[in-house]
Amino acid sequence: MSSPVSTASPRTVANKTEKPALLAAIRMALEIESPAVRHNTQAFNSGRYRATAEIPDYDQLKDRARATKEAAIARLPELLATLEASVKRNGGNLFLAKTGEEAARYITKV
Length: 110
Fold this sequence. Notes:
The chain is mostly helical. The chain contains five helices and no strands.
């Protein structure tokens, strides 16, 4: 006689009001998803390492990209003002949300 197939999943087991049930759901998710996540991570990393090895100046390019990002962050207020002026000049509106919730409310409203 075969045992019944369980239809339990992390979502059906999770109960955020009861910590033991929530922890059981997290453990279940890790048991189910860990092998797939591990495989996908290893495959992704392997491909990335092969691809970056083919770029002769990869480390220098990575350093330049980081420097560009850091310079942009340092100039963020100025860059946002330039963006806003450009958007308005082209007939658009720019909304800078302070939080994710604020952004979601604005998007829903628009």
